[in-house]
Structures are given as structure tokens and as C-alpha cells.
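Budget justification aside, the reviewers requested a transparent look at the raw inputs and outputs of the sequence design task funded under Objective 1. We therefore reproduce one unedited record. The lines immediately below are the C-alpha cells for a 105-residue chain.
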């Protein structure tokens, strides 16, 4: 009877320890999953903050006429088949005045 009682007590202690171990393992698994999710969220936040900074700089640049012209030129590079882009460099303020076209140049 004494041996049976001790075996029952040992089985009960082992059972309680097994339950505690399983619960700790579950808690640790949840903590690892939450830590990974938190790390992922922080990385996404950092990339969104960087993207926001880039977008704010782009908005500030595009608000200025000097910043819009290069943007327009970049957009114009997207041409279809059988199309060409002609860039005129060194245009001066009087470049808009009418001139006679000279084909020899």
C-alpha cells in the first residue's frame, strides 16, 4: 500500500510537471511569435517612415517650377513605338521668341 501511494504521488508530480512544462512551452512559443510579429511591424514602420520622407521631399520638389521640369522630362521618356523625344538644352528666356528655322544647323 505504501509503495502504491508513493507511485501514485510520483505519477501525480510528474503529471503536474508535464502540464507546467507544456504550458511554459506554449507561452514561450507565443512570445517568440509575438516578438517576430513586433520585429516585422517595426521594419514596416521604418520603411513607411522612409517612404514618407521621400514622398515629402518629392512633394516639396514638385511644388517648385524648377523641380517640376525634370519630372516632366522623366515622364516624357516613356514614349511609344515610332516616337522620338527631342530635348532642347540651354534654352534662354528669349528662346520663346519666334525665329526663322534654319535647316543647315
Amino acid at each position: 500500500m505504501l509503495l502504491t501511494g508513493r507511485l501514485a504521488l510520483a505519477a501525480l508530480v510528474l503529471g503536474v510537471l508535464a502540464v507546467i512544462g507544456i504550458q511554459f512551452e506554449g507561452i514561450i512559443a507565443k512570445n517568440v511569435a509575438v516578438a517576430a510579429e513586433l520585429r516585422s511591424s517595426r521594419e514596416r514602420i521604418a520603411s513607411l517612415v522612409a517612404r514618407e520622407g521621400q514622398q515629402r521631399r518629392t512633394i516639396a520638389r514638385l511644388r517648385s517650377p524648377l523641380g517640376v521640369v525634370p519630372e516632366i522630362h522623366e515622364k516624357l521618356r516613356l514614349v511609344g513605338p515610332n516616337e522620338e523625344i527631342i530635348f532642347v538644352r540651354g534654352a534662354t528666356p528669349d528662346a520663346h521668341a519666334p525665329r526663322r528655322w534654319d535647316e543647315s544647323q
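The helical segments are 2-63, 65-76. DSSP finds two helices and no strands in the chain. Computational costs for records of this kind are itemized in the attached budget.
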